[in-house]
Amino acid sequence: MKIKATTPCYKFRDATPEEQIAKIKEELAEVEVAYIEFKKVPTEDKLLALMMEIIDVKACCNTFVYQLRKNHALAFLAYAKAKREVINKNLARGYYFTPEDIDKLNTNKSEPF
Hints:
Blueprint: H1 17-40, H2 44-71, H3 75-92, H4 99-105
Helix pairs in contact: 1-2
């Protein structure tokens, strides 16, 4: 198995949904702190720290998706449907112009939207 920075954190696979939501909020607060630091002193080190915190949020969210898939039989199909619905909603809102634009925005090239 190839480990990516956004791979679900299996150590927390048995966390409750409430615990995982709290963890996501904690990580998001760290993004805010890192952004404030970067805004004050826009150095490469501060940018790296900010990017690391953003990736941590993505990993926490992927962990939550993993937990839901593990504990709810329909979650796998619901996740796939939700991704399609979000893309359609965002296309309708003008967030992207074409499906190709979606791929250009994809920051996780190993997992297509």
